[in-house]
Amino acid sequence: MRKCISLINLITGATAEDERHRNADVAVLPVGSFEQHGPYLPLVTDTVVACAIAHQVAGVYPVMLLPPITISCSHEHAAWRGTVSIGARTLHQLVEDVAGSLRRSGVERLILINGHGGNYVLSNVVQEYTAAHGPTMSLFPTGRDWQKARADAAMTTDGHEDMHAGELETSLLLHVAPELVRAGNETADWVADDRPHLLTLGISAYTLSGVIGRPSLGTAEKGKAALDSLTASFAAHLRAVKP
User: Fold this and answer.
1) pLDDT for res 5
2) Residue 1 in domain
3) pTM score of the predicted model
4) In terms of Cα–Cα distance, which of 227, 55, 66, 37 is closest to 141?
5) Which residue segment(s) compose the domain that 88 sits in?
6) Quick check: is 6 in a domain?
7) What is the reported pLDDT for 242?
8) How many structural domains does the chain have?
9) What contacts 48, CB < 8 A, 6 or more positions away?
């Protein structure tokens, strides 16, 4: 039987003494969300994805693993019960506060591992922070990183067609936490490629189920390949903040 990653192992169990010995000068901060992902994926899907990426990255590269931000900017999903959001300014300030605290303890560089596409403000956080402090913060994965992960995993869909709770997210959860995936993804495909007013109307204007994508194509094998691809892509971001 294939072993899955325990959810508790997706966050750090390190002690202060562990971090003293590690002496990392780069930290990784997973940023997830608490929002609807259709009837078969949990509200914590984006947090699980961000933590899975950060956990695997921390096993390969010399970085300090931080616990996740679990609620972020999910306002486009507000029509669904269970979704909880914070404001963009709150998320901006939270990340800046974390970065400032890290700097005071001697960790100068921070890479944000973002699991939710609606966290647009994180791009601004990185731009503003690096303008003030130099190239010491990065946002990962980028659109290019996700695109490469899809290609390396031989996924059928692209990021536009497969926007939410589709092939990619279903595959990642089937790999890292299959116990969280309920029955129903096999018949939940929903195509809504034309979404011109998503920011104004929210996702509920384009889907009845909360899904936009093809979750029926998700497999654990694709999830593993995508996660391995992202782990390899992380090296370029590490070089950018630590030349």
Assistant:
1) 56
2) no
3) 0.96
4) 227
5) 24-241
6) no
7) 87
8) 1
9) 7, 10, 32, 42, 115, 172, 173, 176, 177, 180
Among 14, 228, 227, which Cα is nearest to 115's?
A: 227
Among residues 118, 17, 18, 26, the alpha carbon closest in space to that of 64 is found at 26
Biggest CA–CA distance in the chain, Å, is: 52
Interhelix angle 143-152/167-176, rounded to 10 degrees, is 70
Per the listing, tokens 């990653």 go with 5
Give pLDDT, residue 2: 46
Residue 16 lies in a domain: no
Count Cα neighbours of 102 within 13 Å in the Cβ-side half-sphere: 25
Q: What CATH number did the domain enclosing 31 receive?
A: 3.40.50.10310
Question: Strand, coil or helix: what is 31?
Answer: strand
**What is the mean pLDDT for each group of 10 consecutive residues in the chain (243 residues)?**
58 92 97 98 97 96 96 98 98 98 97 98 98 97 98 98 98 96 97 97 98 98 98 98 86
Are the C-beta atoms of 171 and 165 separated by less than 8 Å?
no
The CA-based dihedral angle spanning residues 100, 104, 109, 113, taken in that order and rounded to the nearest 10 degrees:
-50
3 found inside a domain: no
